[in-house]
Amino acid sequence: QVQLVESGGGLVQAGGSLRLSCVASGRTFRLYSMAWFRQAPGKEREFVGAIRWSGGMTYYADFVKGRFTISRDNAKNTLYLQLNSLKSEDTAVYYCAATPVTTGRYEAQYDYWGQGTQVTVSS
Fold first, then answer.
1. Helix, strand or coil for residue 67?
2. Handedness of CA 109, 75, 48, 40 (dihedral sign)
3. CA distances (Å), origin 120, targets 69, 103, 106
């Protein structure tokens, strides 16, 4: 079992930055591949990006376009999402997710989810 707790969301002006964190319980965090998803009001949850268990490979949704960066610190059981050049359309609840197998872009591929952290970007 893995429990995930996100933090770091808030209100930011367009063009600003935030860093989201996701702390995982359990000693096997380093064996899990991780991802970030987001859900905007009235929309379905969508994939943002993912990172392999080793941290050696990351990939992102097309809309990220170099603005976001995923990283992880296995010694701290923590996943990060650096959000730069934020736009109003980035307003959403951001979720981290974990899987003991390889990463993917689909929700069904992830077994564990956090409760989400709200990011609001004002224009």
1. coil
2. positive
3. 18, 27, 24
CA 39 from chain centre, in angstroms, equals 11
What are the tokens at 91?
A: 């307003």
CB-CB contact of 64 with 76 (8 Å): no
Alpha-carbon Rg for the chain, nearest whole angstrom, is 13
> What is the pLDDT at residue 56?
76
Helix (H, G, I), strand (E, B) or coil at 71: strand
Which phi and psi (to 5°) does residue 17 adopt? -135, 155
pLDDT tens column, 57-76 = 999 999 998 999 999 999 99
Cβ neighbors of 21 (< 8 A, separation 6 or more) are 6, 7, 8, 78, 79, 80
